[in-house]
Amino acid sequence: MTTPLVVSELSKSFTMHLQGGIRLSVVKNASFAVRAGECAVLGGPSGAGKSSILKMAYGNYAADSGQIIVQHGHELIDLVTADPRTIIAIRNSTIGYVSQFLRVVPRVSAVDIVAEPAIAEGLAPDAAREKASTMLARLNLPERLWQLPPATFSGGEQQRVNIARGFITSHPILLLDEPTASLDRANREVVVEMIGEKKQAGTALLGIFHDQEVRDMVADDIIDVTGFAPARAA
Ligand SMILES: Nc1ncnc2c1ncn2[C@@H]1O[C@H](COP(=O)(O)OP(=O)(O)OP(=O)(O)O)[C@@H](O)[C@H]1O
């Protein structure tokens, strides 16, 4: 079986336009792989480049050089050189992403926000809403909130909507950016369980977890990005 996500010699710098166009190198020659059924965790101190790597793996940040090879259906695609249309197709069916914060859509209910990616994946709308409700119940979101738009929800409530939305599909690769950051212990445990189920189903997970306890429970591999962070003078 092909490894779903293989990153090779990936480098990234930012051009600081307000500081005379100097280039700040943040990731240098990052190389690692994430296998099916495994959760790899990006580790290293604040500012080491973890989020930048995760954003490149979702096609949000452009890389300067290197490769991010993704198994997309029967094809192997390099995200670094893929065109925007291909990146959208990959996000629809191959790579899911749970960000720290929910992007709230005005007037769309929590249950519809969660159901949307499942409908995009081909599930009938009623079945998708039912699945969304099951996930929201599991994440202890009070039922009175399900039909409301999440704009006024608390940080933890919004994060649970976001997690349900990210976990509802069966994307073979799932990227997790601090999915448990604003959750209480009971809900953190639910997320840890859900990650375990994804692993069982053969999903390749790549995440950032600042919470050491959660990290220890989910990580099969810790990728220390300090080794990929260039000296700041570079
Ligand atoms: N859009 C940007 N423009 C300029 N510099 C950026 C940008 N995004 C990140 N950086 C810089 O890149 C470096 C790596 O940041 P990144 O967010 O990837 O680190 P991190 O390891 O995820 O940190 P943390 O654990 O604090 O979230 C930092 O020095 C940061 O200031």
Summarize the SSE layout with pairings:
Layout: E1 5-16, E2 22-34, E3 39-43, H1 50-57, E4 65-72, E5 75-78, H2 84-93, E6 95-98, H3 110-120, H4 125-138, H5 155-167, E7 173-177, H6 185-200, E8 204-208, H7 212-218, E9 221-224
Parallel strand pairs: 3-8, 3-9, 6-7, 7-8
Antiparallel strand pairs: 1-2, 1-4, 4-5
Helix pairs in contact: 3-4, 3-5
Give structural notes.
This protein is of the alpha/beta class and 234 residues long. The protein folds into 2 domains: 155 residues, P-loop containing nucleotide triphosphate hydrolases (Rossmann fold, 3-Layer(aba) Sandwich), CATH 3.40.50; 71 residues, no CATH class. It is 34% helix and 26% strand. It contains 7 helices and 9 strands; from the N terminus they run βββαββαβαααβαβαβ. Strands 6-7-8-3-9 form a 5-stranded parallel sheet. Strands 2-1-4-5 form a 4-stranded antiparallel sheet, with helices on one face. A hairpin with a 2-residue loop joins strand 4 and strand 5. Helix 3 packs across helix 4. The longest helix has 16 residues. 38% of the residues are buried. The model has no long low-confidence stretch (mean pLDDT 92). The site of adenosine-5'-triphosphate has 10 residues, from strand 2 and helix 1. Belongs to the ABC transporter superfamily. GO terms for molecular function: ATP binding; ATP hydrolysis activity; lyase activity. Keywords: ATP-binding, Lyase, Nucleotide-binding.
